[in-house]
Design brief:
2 copies of one chain form a homodimer. By secondary structure, the first copy, chain A, is an alpha+beta fold. Chain A folds into 2 domains: about 240 residues, L-amino peptidase D-ALA esterase/amidase; about 120 residues, ArgJ beta chain, C-terminal domain (Ubiquitin-like (UB roll)). Helix content of chain A is about 30%, strand content about 25%. Chain A has 10 helices and 15 strands. Chain A has a 6-stranded mixed beta sheet with strand order 13-12-11-14-10-15, covered by helices on one side. Chain A has a 5-stranded mixed beta sheet with strand order 3-9-8-7-6, sandwiched between helices. Chain A is globular and about 70 Å long. Chains A and B meet through helix 2, helix 8, helix 9, strand 13 and helix 10 of A and helix 2, helix 8, helix 9, strand 13 and helix 10 of B. Chains A, B: One of its GO terms (molecular function) is L-glutamate N-acetyltransferase activity, acting on acetyl-L-ornithine as donor. Chains A, B: Keywords: Acyltransferase, Amino-acid biosynthesis, Arginine biosynthesis, Autocatalytic cleavage, Cytoplasm, Multifunctional enzyme, Transferase. Chains A, B: Its main location: cytoplasm.
Chain lengths: ~375, ~375
Amino acid sequence: MSTTGITAPAGFTAAALTAGIKPSGNPDMALVVNTGPEFHAAAVFTRNRVVASPVKLSRQAIADGQVKAVLYNAGNANACNGRQGDLDAAELQHQVAELLDLSPSDVGICSTGLIGELLPMGKLRAGIDKLATDLGDNGGVAAEAIMTTDLVKKEILVQGNGWSLGGMGKGVGMMSPSLATMLVCFTTDASATPEMLDTALRAATRVTFDTLDIDGSTSTNDTVFLLASGASGVSPTQEELNAAVLAASQELTSKLQADAEGVTKRVAVTVEGTSTDIQALDAARTLARDSLFKCAMFGSDPNWGRVLAAVGVADADMDPEHISVYFNGQPVCVDTTGTPGAREVDLSGADIDVLVHLGIDGPGRATVRTTDLSHDYVEINSAYSS
Amino acid sequence: MSTTGITAPAGFTAAALTAGIKPSGNPDMALVVNTGPEFHAAAVFTRNRVVASPVKLSRQAIADGQVKAVLYNAGNANACNGRQGDLDAAELQHQVAELLDLSPSDVGICSTGLIGELLPMGKLRAGIDKLATDLGDNGGVAAEAIMTTDLVKKEILVQGNGWSLGGMGKGVGMMSPSLATMLVCFTTDASATPEMLDTALRAATRVTFDTLDIDGSTSTNDTVFLLASGASGVSPTQEELNAAVLAASQELTSKLQADAEGVTKRVAVTVEGTSTDIQALDAARTLARDSLFKCAMFGSDPNWGRVLAAVGVADADMDPEHISVYFNGQPVCVDTTGTPGAREVDLSGADIDVLVHLGIDGPGRATVRTTDLSHDYVEINSAYSS
């Protein structure tokens, strides 16, 4: 049994291989199968209104709270391919179902890669045939197979009391680049109802994946699955389940942030001193998406004026004359005025912590994690498809 | 009399000099004076809630529709400097008023540069003394003195029937970078009421400066003044005035776009096929601010999938299955599906035209002008204050 990842919990097998979708020749297809005895599941998807064909199918598959297998491919998003894209995704779903003796509606599909290219169906058909015969303790290769511009594979394992939760993820941004979808698969041998899984997953994603904002772009393909086999025979409480899914999501979010496209700085933006958490989140997201702020972070430049300019347009209650900013715990701006020594704060490390107080005596608070805007980000994203 | 710029219309003088605020030693202060016989004026300001001290004063000055002089400095924004910043701006306003024998409330103040540094008041005081004695036909030097990271000075002249409208502007983005405020001054020798001027200015800025979006950031200092001397003795109709201010704003917007920070591509984004102009504007702005789209433009990469992913999150009515995209007039995506040859569209030129139809049979339409996201943009903005 694996020591981490999706095949570490009991009741799961996986297979992965190189089908030839990625030009690199690296593994690019994976299949994850829940061997039971239970097949409960939950999932969350991108909020984009333009969604890929596999997202449409996976939404239908999760509707009854049961998913027994998920097929992954990288190198092609199967998004914006019209009716042919829908037909192709459905054919893959049916092929997996037939080979594993499942109902098509118990098979989820996740794709990531370039938008607007038809899937090389010959390669995928042959890949599925082989995947179905290779199922085993292969979570590690599956985690490699879903990578696109990711530099490292991302796996986690959280131990419960007599049960465990494993996971794999890919993506260089959340709700993020069209070419860098975030895909996550969690597996657990805990016994839990679909409702419990859904509750735990939504609570966790709200404060983890949903608040990782690399570049403000929202993918057409983002999907997070949580599959539960019940194979441990242990039924955790809702609270125990919530805690494990949250811990797993936090760890995977950190791994995604650390491997974001062109990242040289990991930046945590916290906003407080406003009326509601939603307002704080809007302000934090506005700052996390501000190109000038992100360039300053790349330059290790404590240019707090850009923080003020950015949050000043946020949809949040604030007192414009009493905003404070802290870089790595040091006050650089108090009451909308710079402090002595503010320009000398050392931001040369890889982790930067930014705290903004909007000057209102309210309970609103939120944290968004982002990265800097670097030359490598521009290079990667101006050269990807050409 | 100048052949272009703010001292081309009758009834205006200007002076400019190097006060030593900019480290470069280039001109950094300017004074524009309306010599009458009329002193009507209008102005628009940044929508940011965090505003610089000079913006607060200029808002008060314009309240009665009369402004006789505007003082400019570059190299220091006098923003986020607390009470001392307000006091400094007021002192400058009073000094100008005293030397020119005006009421302080008839003097506007505009600053641009780094946020959060106190003004070097000694240099500014000496500068004003000299500016007041140097007034003349110096619009060209004034246009230089307001530059920050601008590479070229920006002046325009629009001819009316017996009157004219001149202007100068600076800024590498509209409603834009905290370190690259957009400042514009229009002068006209037409005779027009403050209400006529205000109507003309707001109508023009709505479709010009307000739809130039370089990086989505909103400055603390953006200010556009329109000063009218009546010296021509001609009273244009509202329509004639509107047309001249619109033409002047369009020309200056083009100059600002062409000189934006790190620009290698000038990109016009038009959205139609949605319910209202406001929705179309939201979608156009969402696309114009999308880092992945802007990186693709930098790479001359017709990666239309990023256009779909970006507009899919806009606050606009759309039919997600029937979106079309045109690059330079060529259809690259029809009904949310790529066209044959879409990847071969040539985007190697400096001007790129993007048209997005959101698939709804509605009258909404808007154009936003932006630029690409280049290595130079990152370089300029990671190194500015350090």
